[in-house]
Design goal:
102 residues, 4-stranded antiparallel β-sheet, 36% strand, alpha+beta
């Protein structure tokens, strides 16, 4: 499954500043069972808007990670809160179909 959210970088800050915090938190979160990796994608026409994607083996694994409060992750996230506004887009199942290039 994928957990996806939109990140809007606030004026005076950069996506790279947010990415630094994202990577530090992700390195910890990715140690959780079922974690598959994270990605940040920059919007083509607005470099201050990002899509953040966290991949998991299942929603149950992600929920289990959320129940295990990690103080260090919370500190990193709180420390980066002034950089951006985050809007969760939701939790999505792995694709029912994939159309690969020929």
């Amino acid at each position: 499954m994928k957990y996806i959210f939109e990140v809007h970088i606030k004026p005076g800050y950069t996506a790279e500043q947010y990415a630094e915090a994202w990577v530090r938190a992700s390195e910890i979160i990715q140690q959780a069972e079922g974690a598959r990796g994270t990605e940040l994608h920059r919007k083509l026409d607005d470099p201050n808007v990002l899509i953040a994607i966290a991949s998991w083996d299942s929603k149950a694994y992600r929920d289990a990670m959320e129940r295990q409060h990690n103080r260090k992750v919370a500190e990193i996230i709180q420390g980066a809160a002034h950089l951006c506004d985050i809007r969760p887009l939701g939790e999505f199942a792995d694709p029912d179909w994939v159309v690969p290039p020929q």
